[in-house]
Amino acid sequence: MADLPLDPAELQRAGLRLDVDGAVATISLARPERRNALTFSTWHTLARIGETLPETVRVVVVRGDGPSFSAGIDLRLFSPEGVPGEDTSGPRDEEFIAGLQAGYLWLRRPDIVSIAAVQGHAIGGGFQLALSCDLRVVADDVKFAMKEPALGIVPDLTGTKPLVDIVGVPRALEICLTTRTVFAEEAARLGLAELVVPAAELDSAVADLVAAILQVPPATAAATKRLIRQAPHNTLEEQAAAERREQVPLLGDPAGASPAS
Ligand code: ACO
């Protein structure tokens, strides 16, 4: 295990655990007694994990302890009592929300592949955390729900874009405005899960996926992710040009050097 870039006490305050083992970082939501409810510290610390991630890391797994991946925002943050240790006095302006969003946005970086391992409930900010990852492996008891509109707010933790990209505008609107639950079979059908497995097999299924991804050389994986991510926004001609740009450096020196890795 590498030395952790973050103070374990800071992680604990945020309800998180971080394990870095060579090329794989595992972020665990670690407040199962509260169903891994998320606080402002959780989002700020997730951003710090992204900023300080060792360069060796190529795959980031985001998982949750206990029966639920995450019950979303800690609802006590909306109460006058708040959450002990959490500063709820500041303005709720766009800069404040950007600071929370930073906790999720880095999971799309091209130098890593992020995988959400989701069991049980993934609600609101928990659903959006799963959506922030490149891939989702889910247990057959998964329950996704975007509850924000029921609380009078919009989903603002970067989840609306991936949700629409995956399920399309009408279905995303219906899921958000009904705040209903999406169960495993539908999640797989809609593309919200790459893989559905029995709950007891979630960890091993994720480990198999991680091992497969790590077989691809790092530079190739990063180039492929850049390429695939931009494809929906490009014309065919633009995408063909992007393929050429990414491929040439990977082909290496024609005089015999092996392709870049
Ligand atoms: N915030 C704070 N505490 C929570 C939260 C939450 N979001 N979710 C669960 N907890 C606490 C419960 O209050 C309970 O505490 P207690 O033991 O002190 O009574 C403990 O976690 C266990 O919760 P249960 O409800 O008993 O667990 P169960 O497994 O039966 O249900 C479920 C889990 C479905 C997730 C339920 O707790 C729930 O509906 N939570 C609220 C979900 C929600 O609306 N989140 C906000 C989404 S919007 C957003 O994220 C922006």
UniProtKB/TrEMBL annotation:
Chain positions covered by the region annotation Disordered: 239-261
Domain of life: Bacteria
InterPro entries: ClpP/crotonase-like_dom_sf, Enoyl-CoA_hyd/isom_CS, Enoyl-CoA_hydra/iso, Enoyl-CoA_hydra_C
UniProt keyword Lyase, yes or no: yes
Entry-linked SUPFAM superfamilies: ClpP/crotonase
Short name of one Pfam family: ECH_1
UniProt keyword terms in alphabetical order: Lipid metabolism, Lyase
Family, similarity comment: Belongs to the enoyl-CoA hydratase/isomerase family.
PANTHER family cross-referenced by the UniProt entry: (7AS)-7A-METHYL-1,5-DIOXO-2,3,5,6,7,7A-HEXAHYDRO-1H-INDENE-CARBOXYL-COA HYDROLASE, ENOYL-COA HYDRATASE-RELATED
Protein name: Enoyl-CoA hydratase/isomerase family protein
Highest classification ranks of the organism: Bacteria, Bacillati, Actinomycetota, Actinomycetes, Streptosporangiales
